[in-house]
Amino acid sequence: MTVKSNKGVILKAYPKGIPEVDENFELVHRTINIESLNLKENEFILRNLCLSIDPYVRITLQDPTSIIMKYGKGVLTGQVVNGIGVSEVVKTNNPNYKVGDLVYGAIGWEEYSHIKPDDASVSSFMLVNKELLKDTPL
Questions:
Q1: Is residue 27 helix, strand or coil?
Q2: Burial label, 109 (beta-carbon count in 10 A; 0-12, 13-18, 19+)
Q3: What is the CATH number of the domain that holds 81?
Q4: pTM of the prediction?
Q5: Is residue 138 a part of any domain in this protein?
Q6: Which of 43, 46, 68, 123 could form a disulfide with 87 if both were Cys (CB 3.0 to 4.6 A apart)?
């Protein structure tokens, strides 16, 4: 059985002003059983390696009733915060990705992300050319 730690950062409350770690976010300790997870068509599992914490993330943390969120998708309280990062495919049922591929795209602030075909981000992942990285650590 392949049970792995899958700690993640969830949005506890919408920030008013500058976000406060203890007030707005919570580190949750979860696990994921990669081996026994039956992936549906086009789903895949990523091991998240690098996360970019960009200013746009602040916009996604707005209350969904705000004028800004009427034009985009935000994070709901209790959900994992999202960002852009580099990940390794560790399990796949998607013909576009094979185990070991490095991809760049929208991932959760968590150790592993389960990407489903209904996620808007599933088609936005780009393959990272490992050959270009052979002399450069992630």
A1: strand
A2: buried
A3: 3.90.180.10
A4: 0.87
A5: no
A6: 46
